[in-house]
Amino acid sequence: MEETISLQDLFKTLKKRAVLILLAMLLAVTVAGVFSFLVLTPIYQASTQILVNQQKYEQNQFNSQDIQANLQLINTYNVIIKSPAILSIVIENLDLNTTPAALNSKITVNSAQNSQVVNISVQDPEHHVAVDIANTTAEVFQEEIQKLMNVDNVNILSPAVYVENPSPVKPNPYLNMSIAAVIGLMLGAGIAFLLDYLDTTVKTEQDIENLLGLPILGLISPISEKDILGMKESPKWGRKGR
């Protein structure tokens, strides 16, 4: 015998276990909020931009081939910026207690398509440290690229600045709590359906029909003790009793 579950049965299960589902959601939101606000370390970000331009010529003219050459150089520059040759000098200048590999993981270098502007972003638990690393990395790269590639086509376009009350880029407590609410609802609904599936007690006539596979011919309504006492005290009951 195959059992089918209708949408009405699903909604009945959700309604019956609504308290459980809400508790699961509130628990998930609370845990996410506690971790986001109290446990996880806030991370701040600072960014600086450098411009890869053409070398200065006497006529001060640029052509499409020169610009294309600069765009091709940007991919090479992105690698050099995060190389130990640059980061080791940054660590030395700022007297950081870290390694080039660890500092590399904090730095992100990217540029928009067909753009000669390179963005250097640094994430750190302390905002002022992130600003110092971003600016120092750009400055060191501007100096060292002249020695490494014998070119002078890098200018600092927009240095990172200190902010009095910076906002962390992560964690995002409200986003984490929203995701936790959805997960809590899904988990609560799953537990509700599991409990309903494991509940094999017979509660309705439909359960009996599904269990035995036989049609229901009649129902016997339950009679409370109050009704029984009332029937005994009635005159009709008394005459039959005699």
Automatic annotation (TrEMBL):
Keywords: Cell membrane, Membrane, Transmembrane, Transmembrane helix. It comes from the Bacteria. Pfam families: GNVR, Wzz. InterPro entries: Bact_polysacc_biosynth/exp (IPR050445), GNVR (IPR032807), LPS_length_determ_N (IPR003856). It is found in: Cell membrane. It is a multi-pass membrane protein. Residues 142-194 form the Tyrosine-protein kinase G-rich domain. Residues 3-94 form the Polysaccharide chain length determinant N-terminal domain. The chain crosses the membrane at residues 20-44, 174-195. Belongs to the CpsC/CapA family. This is YveK family protein. It comes from Sporosarcina soli. The lineage of its organism: Bacteria, Bacillati, Bacillota, Bacilli, Bacillales.
